Amino acid sequence: MCQLCVFLSSSVSSKDKEDTKDLRWGNHTVVTEFKLLGFSDFQKLQVLLFVVVLIIYSITLIGNSFIIFIIIASPSLQTPMYFFLKNLSFLDICYTSVTIPRMLRDLLLDTKNISYTGCIAQMCCFALLGTAECFLLSAMAYDRYIAICHPFQYLVIMNRRLCIQLVAVSWMSGITVALTQTSLIAMLPYCRHNTINHFFCDIVPLINLACGKTSVNQTELFLVAIFVVMVPFIMIIISYICIISTILRMQSADGKRKVFSTCSSHLMVVSLFYGTSCAMYLNSTSSEFLGSGKLLALLYTVVTPVLNTIIYSLRNKEIKVALRELMHRNLSIFQR
Fold first, then answer.
1. Mean pLDDT across the chain, nearest whole number?
2. What are the tens digits of pLDDT across the range 18-59?
3. Shortest CA distance to 115 belongs to which of 218, 12, 2, 4?
4. How far apart are CA 49 and CA 36, in angstroms?
5. What pTM did the predictor assign?
6. Which of 314, 307, 306 is CA-nearest to residue 100?
7. Which of 131, 146, 200, 264 is most exposed, with minimal Cβ within 10 Å?
């Protein structure tokens, strides 16, 4: 998917722009590479931050790969809920791999430059995967709504065809948003100032860095944030209002606890992911944003994916049971 971003970003760069740093845009020198400041303000914490992020990234990769393997290998987990979870785990692996490896490199090296094409491609891939995750989380909320509010019709409504369609819509929304944003950003002129106060190429710092008029980009960013963040979030809130209403009508206390346990993990991830995203993109023009943007970005690029791993594996009884069954089955085969 991200090859589309690479192609688009390279197509907007002329041959001269790649070969020289002396191109002119009016009376300004056009930059052909950017410098990511990252966390250079915390020089003494660079090594510590590298170790912490590396551990979190490793847990994210191993944990999400483990979830995908267990779901594929276990017959008892072939349900719509785990179909969405398998796709979420794959998304998180890709999502973190767009930004964290580059951040780890920059934490160790003094050279923090990234080419124009590489920067635009990274932004495009991040927008694609982030948008897809927003819509996938809303699909998971809809799945829980049907499972709890219409349990007897669950397998009929949430059939395989609908599940595939919901995942496909998530990916297509991501592709559409990413290519739209990339096209508009690629048309902006970037002059002598090429320092990005961030640890990856995100749309907000790129808009702030441009030396041309950015009103169209800021308006587009706000509208996209409404479409990508607020619309799915409102759908999730409506789903959970219906879920809570159904739970409160249940007579069994055990039933209430089981349903709350099933939905609480999803709600925790949603709250952190959408909360930080709203603060990031709906408040991007404020003066305080430049200082807090990196911290907010750390939450939804590093923390949220590892929480997905912990919540959906360590707190998920069905995955634990499936793991025990898989281990028992493999031991039985080995003993024969």
1. 82
2. 433 444 445 455 677 888 888 887 778 888 999 999 999 999
3. 12
4. 16
5. 0.86
6. 306
7. 264
